[in-house]
Specification:
With 493 residues, this protein is of the alpha+beta class. It contains 9 helices and 15 strands. Helix 6 packs across helix 8 and helix 7 packs across helix 8. The longest helix is centred in the middle third of the chain and has 32 residues. It starts with a strand and ends in a 14-residue tail after the last helix.
């Protein structure tokens, strides 16, 4: 027997010969066994019955009496099939399976029969894995079954042909892989069988038949596969889709966290951390101040209003941008920095750092003589050079911890206080500036402030909000004083 994508091999048989339409005893199954005519109902039919009951109880054999039926007689035997199977030698049969697969998208088709086909080969998982000729016994064995046991009642075996094809010319691979599996459960209603009959006419014109109940193995051929070929456009589409999925994931997480935050009224630690990371607070520039300590490598942001001295106020660290070193005079102008890397600069010489261009010489590398700390220095001062003040925003020292004041360093003298440096910077901006003008001290003082901010804060962007320490501020004022001693100081508005 053969059907679409399957074939049947008979392994066992029960044959009932010379059946005629007659009245005869039913096969003795539970509902057909009787002891008197009262137990047999005329005209009734049971699902297991071979015909229509006549209402009589007759002798079946020496052991049983059964209800008489009008059927093809004698009725077929309903017991177990012969064991061992009558056609058990069919395990040595071979079958040639022809399969052709086509991938319409790539307009490519291929048969399972190799180009150099050896007709004497038989499929073997190790030796001949691509041979399309199969021995039935080997198929059942690959399905982890015994042919002699399966042949008694039959069964269903799946022959799976899997095509996993790479159709790219540089890495071509398209060959079938065979697999085998038993589909019926050998513990629950195992086997496979069906009936058929052959009919004859007797010389008297009466019809006669031979009924066959055949058992066997049905082989179902199941073909599936995948064809792959590189396509740059598909790759771009898939990458775009993947990126869009990341956006969906972010949106889903956002919704979940929003629900959690709403249910907890935003009081959970997770919600607070999430909101702090997600939303960046943009501060009004007039509400912050920036400070820099000589013994700390970063700039600190302080929020207003202050509840204590600026020296002891807690703040957050912000990124600073150190100034590239070049000629000292160029540090106070952003324009000159652009040319520092292109100009040949002469090594910095020690300058005269007196208020009136003193003749006293300083050599770089030699520490300045540290002046004595003032006994009247306030408690918040760590360098001993700051002056007392009642304003919280002016209570700032150059250091966070006790130590030497930055105003005693050579770099402060050279970069901030040096009149040569400041005059060079003023002339850089205005080559025709009159350095003998009576207002030159004010310009040099303001330029010294800017020079300090650029040196210690790394950027002119912070100039308006950067607070210069008390010791540095008064050192600059003492060096370049006003005619009238009234200084504005840091503006808090």
């Amino acid at each position: 027997m053969q059907a679409t994508n399957s074939f049947f091999v008979m392994t066992n048989i029960i044959k009932t010969e010379n059946q005629l339409k007659r009245n005869c005893p039913e096969y003795p199954f539970v509902k057909a066994v009787c002891s008197s005519d009262n137990q047999c109902k005329n005209g009734s039919v049971d699902i297991h019955s071979k015909g229509i009951q006549t209402g009589r109880c007759v002798v079946y054999n020496a052991t049983f009496k059964t209800c008489e039926v009008n059927a093809w007689c004698p009725v077929q035997y309903m017991g177990e099939p012969p064991e061992p199977a009558i056609l058990r030698s069919s395990e040595d049969f071979t079958v040639l399976i022809k399969n052709n697969i086509k991938f319409p998208k790539f307009n490519y088709s291929i048969p399972n029969i190799p180009k150099n086909f050896n007709t004497s080969c038989t499929y073997n998982k190790t030796i001949f894995p691509f041979c399309p000729i199969f021995r039935l016994g080997n198929i059942v064995q690959e399905a982890k079954q015994k042919f002699s046991e399966m042949a008694v009642k039959g069964g269903i075996i799946a022959i799976r042909i899997n095509w996993d094809c790479n159709l790219d010319s540089w890495f071509y691979d398209c060959r079938p892989k065979y697999g085998f599996q038993r589909l019926d459960d050998k513990n629950i209603m195992p086997g496979f069988h069906f009936r058929y009959a052959k009919y004859y006419k007797l010389p008297q014109g009466e019809e006669q038949r031979t009924l066959y109940k055949v058992y066997g193995i049905r082989f179902d051929v199941i073909v599936f596969g995948t064809g792959r070929k590189f396509n740059i456009i598909e790759l771009i589409k898939n990458i775009g889709s993947m990126i869009s999925y990341f956006g969906l994931v972010a949106s889903a997480i956002e919704v979940v966290l929003s629900v959690v935050s709403y249910s907890n009224s935003g009081k959970s630690a997770l919600c607070k951390i999430y909101n702090r990371k997600k939303y960046e607070t943009v501060l009004n520039p007039s509400q912050v101040m920036y400070v820099s300590y000589v013994d700390e490598p970063h700039v600190t942001l302080i929020k207003k209003p202050l509840k204590t001295s600026l020296q002891h106020a807690q703040g957050s660290i912000v990124e600073s941008h150190p100034v590239k070193f070049c000629d000292a005079g160029s540090c106070c102008t952003t324009e000159s920095n652009e040319h520092c890397d292109n100009e040949e600069s002469e090594p910095m010489r020690s300058t005269e750092s007196n208020e009136n261009d003193d003749n006293e010489q300083y050599e770089l590398g030699q520490p300045l003589r540290q002046g004595a700390s003032s006994p009247d220095s306030p408690k918040w001062c760590c360098c001993g050079k700051c002056l007392p003040t009642q304003k919280y925003h002016e209570q700032l020292c150059c250091r966070r911890k006790k130590g030497q004041c930055i105003t005693t360093s050579h770099w402060f003298q050279q970069l901030v206080l040096s009149s040569r440096t400041l005059k060079k910077a003023l002339l850089y901006k205005d080559p025709f500036l009159d350095l003998t003008d009576g207002n030159i001290n004010n310009q040099m003082r303001h330029l010294a402030y800017m020079q300090y901010v650029h040196w210690r804060f790394g950027s002119f962007d912070l100039e308006d909000r950067a607070v210069i320490p008390s010791c540095c501020r008064w050192k600059i004022r003492d060096t370049y004083p006003k005619v009238v001693n009234n200084y504005t100081g840091f503006k808090m508005e």
